[in-house]
DNA sequence: TATTAGCACTCGAAATAAATGAGTGCTAAC
DNA sequence: GTTAGCACTCATTTATTTCGAGTGCTAATA
């Protein structure tokens, strides 16, 4: 059955109201509030049909209506009016983002914390880099048994490691290795560091002590660590703000799932296109623990291979529009800031594209 | 009034039972369980006196007795029988500690997580180093506008920073500065890096570009960061396991206090002597938010200036003995492991000294 | 044909009442 | 000093009632 314009209006009104109050909404309230010129009886008829169509449900016979996941999906896809952030909000967000990003470089966790603060929901942040390579090796000779490996990555971050050896090395060997690594191990990825390469380098350097493999191992470790997606979940306790989590057991279950680093997005799911906001509603989630919660994530892409996500988790009754705007804004800010560009321009957050899993898995 | 031997036994029995069940304990249950050869009537008389003395209280007239903070204090100081960990537990703890410590170097947060897992309470870990100094500087020339500062601290950790300059430097200057910093900035603490020292170095190096201050600033930053106590709180959500936190608001209040990095120990309180376990019961805590919770912390001291704490937070009804043993064991493990000694020996955890704030602040 | 007023009906939530029983304090006997 | 006995208290549990928001349906209306 096609859904009429009026039904859409009513559905939207129900969702809006329910998001606000967390209480089933009845025909009378709708007739009064939402400015659709018809009586509660008419609305009752429409509501009954919306229930038939699967967009709404009744907790019990004599209660108002509550949106089903399908109802939310419809709302998110078609009905919800995309919020624009006010100028003040924009300023505020910008300021706080700037501050976080300038402070230190544990950015992912900080960004997650920020998102959680701003939305008052548990938040997640995820970041990964593709195609990480090393740009430069320096090996510092400290003493006969000690040296420091310093590598500079293609995005100009620097990593180091102190190596203690049971055997003595001379400074010349260290210098030689440094040169060789700069020649053969720069500009290549994790997977290109093969045993063959290591062996040939070892032979060429005339290294009988296994230094080559120590350095190569470190290089691989750094590349792997850097490329591995890092994820942070923060603010789990904010779940307790939500009436649907007043049951401590229910709250605890989800909170420990979130804390335990369980998958929030389908494993292997790609990070999405930049500036895209995705919404997963209730049963659309793959993780059993999230089946009656919703997830909203925004993707960012810094351009230099660093991509990531920021998102929040909450009950299906979330203010999708407001949260999507904020997350989208943050994600765009990140794209710009991490990409090394200048500070974000206000108003740029309007390119809000909402996309979601539309398959009906109820 | 002096507390008789029998009263002590009864008090201990009440606390033990209450810790177990979280329910007020009555005279009858005590007469049956605790093997003190007297009837419930006698015990009732004793209980009434224990209430008078302030060690117990009644939620209401016709309920059993519950320990007051003073009662817990007495229990912790005198009555509780110090648990020894079983051999299996020791093994288990050792194994898990080893694993954590070997894995990576984000130790404090990991140790906190471990403590939380083992006790099933929110846990905190705090660590600080005194007298940090730099052992060695290396400055790597990358290109005319870029160099990397690498410093090695007295505990052999290495820190680095990439510096981009708007002006050009030549390799000679960098070399010169490297030498000078190794001569004048090693072996000194944060506070010894004075403007005077920086100025004189700058002049001596004939550095008109301000490189000296950049490097000195980094040195100071590293020293300050390293010396500043780092604190971690993890597993806040485990509070929800406790019946006294079934009220979501109460739980939320404490959880967000913990997450927000609020003081758990009195600010400025020293880290305590190694192998000492401190217990703060209810109102003994300074933070308003902790007034009806208890904190148990164990101190460790790695010997090289690294000191710290691990502890847990929970309701006043906690299994003080069991938790103190576990924390003490972990702390001793840390003292040994961080101090660079060999792996901990089993059985060494018996030196369990419990000390606490004994002032009666009820 | 679509809308609406009217009304009986449903059913959860809130309020009220009654029953239960664990645990007490006190008294009197041992 | 200890204990059996007993009346009493009071939170908790269970049962009962009341209340009202909201419904579905019918019949009148535009």
Broad structural category of chain A:
alpha+beta
Largest sheet of chain A: 6 strands, mixed
First-residue to last-residue Cα separation of chain A: 18 Å
Kindly state the percentage of residues in helix of chain A: 40-55%
With strands numbered from the N-terminus, the spatial order across the biggest sheet of chain A is 7-3-10-9-8-11
Q: If you average the pLDDT of chain A, what whole number results? A: 88
Largest interface: A-B, 29 and 29 residues
SSE run of chain A: HHHEEHHHEEEEHHHEHEEEHE
Structural shape of chain A: elongated
Oligomeric organization of the protein chains: homodimer
Topology:
The structure is a homodimer of 362-residue chains.
Chain A: H1 5-21, H2 27-33, H3 40-52, E1 56-57, E2 66-67, H4 69-79, H5 87-103, H6 107-119, E3 123-129, E4 134-143, E5 146-153, E6 158-164, H7 171-184, H8 195-205, H9 211-227, E7 230-234, H10 248-259, E8 276-281, E9 293-301, E10 306-315, H11 320-338, E11 353-356
Parallel strand pairs in A: 8-11
Antiparallel strand pairs in A: 1-2, 3-7, 3-10, 4-5, 5-6, 8-9, 9-10
Helix pairs in contact in A: 1-3, 1-4, 2-3, 5-6, 5-11, 8-9
Chain A binds a DNA duplex (30 and 30 nucleotides) through helix 3.
Can you put this structure into words, describing what you see?
2 copies of one chain form a homodimer. Chain A is an alpha+beta fold. Chain A has a 6-stranded mixed β-sheet. In chain A, strands 4-5-6 form a 3-stranded antiparallel β-sheet. In chain A, a hairpin with a 4-residue loop joins β5 and β6. In chain A, α2 crosses α3, α5 runs antiparallel to α6 and α5 packs across α11. The longest helix of chain A is centred in the C-terminal third of the chain and has 19 residues. The first copy, chain A, is elongated, with a radius of gyration of 27 Å. The C terminus of chain A is likely disordered. At the A-B interface, β4, β5, β6 and α10 of A face β4, β5, β6 and α10 of B. The first copy, chain A, binds a DNA duplex (30 and 30 nucleotides) through α3.
């Amino acid at each position: 059955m096609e859904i009429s314009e009026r039904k859409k209006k009513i559905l939207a009104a129900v969702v809006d109201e329910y998001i606000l109050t967390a209480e089933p909404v009845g025909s009378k309230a709708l007739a009064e509030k939402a400015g659709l010129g018809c009586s509660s009886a008419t609305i009752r008829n429409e509501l009954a049909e919306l229930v038939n169509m699967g967009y709404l449900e009744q907790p019990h016979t004599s209660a108002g209506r509550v949106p089903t996941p399908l109802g939310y999906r419809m709302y998110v896809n078609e009905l919800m009016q995309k919020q624009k952030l006010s100028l003040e909000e924009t300023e505020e967000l910008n300021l706080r983002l700037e501050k976080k990003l300038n402070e230190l470089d544990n950015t992912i966790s900080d960004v997650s914390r920020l998102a959680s603060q701003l939305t008052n929901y548990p938040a997640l942040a995820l970041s990964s880099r593709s195609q990480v390579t090393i740009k430069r090796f320096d090996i510092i000779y400290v003493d006969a048994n000690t040296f420091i490996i310093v590598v500079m990555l293609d995005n100009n971050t620097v990593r180091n490691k102190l190596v203690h050896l049971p055997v003595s090395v001379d400074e010349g060997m260290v210098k030689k290795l440094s040169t060789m690594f700069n020649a053969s191990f720069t500009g290549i990825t994790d997977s290109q560091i093969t045993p063959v390469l290591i062996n040939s380098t070892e032979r060429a350097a005339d290294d009988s002590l296994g230094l080559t493999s120590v350095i190569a191992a470190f290089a691989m470790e750094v590349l792997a660590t850097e490329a591995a997606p890092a994820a942070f979940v923060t603010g789990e306790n904010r779940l307790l703000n939500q009436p649907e989590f007043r049951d401590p057991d229910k709250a605890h279950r989800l909170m420990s799932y979130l804390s335990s680093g369980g998958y929030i997005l389908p494993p292997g799911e790609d990070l999405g296109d930049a500036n895209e906001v995705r919404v997963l509603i209730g049963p659309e989630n793959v993780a059993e623990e999230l089946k009656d919660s919703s997830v909203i994530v925004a993707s960012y892409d810094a351009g230099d291979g660093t991509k990531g996500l920021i998102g929040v988790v909450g009950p299906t009754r979330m203010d999708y529009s407001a949260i999507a705007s904020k997350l989208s804004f943050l994600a765009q800010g990140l794209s710009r800031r991490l990409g090394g560009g200048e500070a974000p321009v206000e108003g740029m957050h309007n390119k809000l594209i909402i996309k979601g899993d539309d398959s009906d898995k109820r």
